[in-house]
Each structure stands twice: as structure tokens, then as C-alpha cells.
Design a protein that fits this description.
7 helices, Spore Coat Polysaccharide Biosynthesis Protein SpsA, Chain A, globular, two-stranded antiparallel sheet
Amino acid sequence: MLAELRGTPLVRHAVDAAVASELRPVLTVVSQFALAIESVLPAGVDVVRAPGARLGIAHSLRSLVRALEGWRQVGAVCVGLADQPLVGPDAYRRLAAAYDAGADFAVATYGGQRQNPVLIGRELWPRVRTLRGDVGARGLMASVPPVEVACDDTGRPDDIDTAEDLARIEREMEN
């Protein structure tokens, strides 16, 4: 999350898109390197600590839902990933529009493929609490079909998991 793309940490790219979407609140779930990550976040972003990353993505998602429980005005959460720095704010806005139109579960698609971000309505949060391991919202998709929201023109869902991925994205951004 702290690797830099064009001089800015990946997590900051991802959080800036969420902030620019104007959806609130914006929370960032952190486990390891929490202080270093917090130091690069913009003002107004709340941090949720979820130590135990080895427990998988479900652990972070459960921590996020738990942190939002007391925010009664929050009817759904849009979840993005720090290693997808090219997802744009309009992807979040489109998912929120789907929620406003009645979708309790929605997923961004790019080229017809389900990617992030994902919107999970409050009614599904009890199911999120049952997820375990390295399974995020995809763990819900088998039993709850999401509304697919085309986000092709809002950015790109590229995962940056390796130094090679980062170098490839850097090269592509230069062209």
C-alpha cells in the first residue's frame, strides 16, 4: 500500500478517489504498517485498525462493517482496494446511484468482468460477519446476486500486487 505510483503511495491514490466521490464517511482499514499508512492519508479519513491481516480479506471487511455499525445514517458501504489505484471516483458514485435506485448489493464491472469497488447494503452486513479467510464480497455473490454496474469509462481496476505490476502501470501511464 505504501509503494509509490508517480510519487504517491498506492493507498493515497485509492483513498483520494473515494474522497473525490463525495461519499461519506471515508474509512481506511489498516493492519500492518498502520502508522505509516495513516501518515499519508488526507485529513478527514477515518482509520479502522484490523490487526491480523493473515486472517484474510474477510477479517478486514468484517472490521469495516463493525466500525460502521453505529453510523445509523450509513445504509451501505462502498469497498475499494488500496492496490487498485486507478479506480476512479465515478465508479463509487455509480454504485451509490445503484443503491439509491434500490440495489442492496452492487459490483463495478469493467469489460463485463466483476471488479472493485463493491457496494454492500446494511441488510447484508450480518452475512459479511460470517465470511472467513481470503474471501471478500465475492463470498456473498454465490448466494446474493449483485447488480452489475458498468464502470468501463471511470478508471481501471488493475491490481498492483508486484513490483512488475507497478512498473507496467507506470509505463502505461507515461504513454
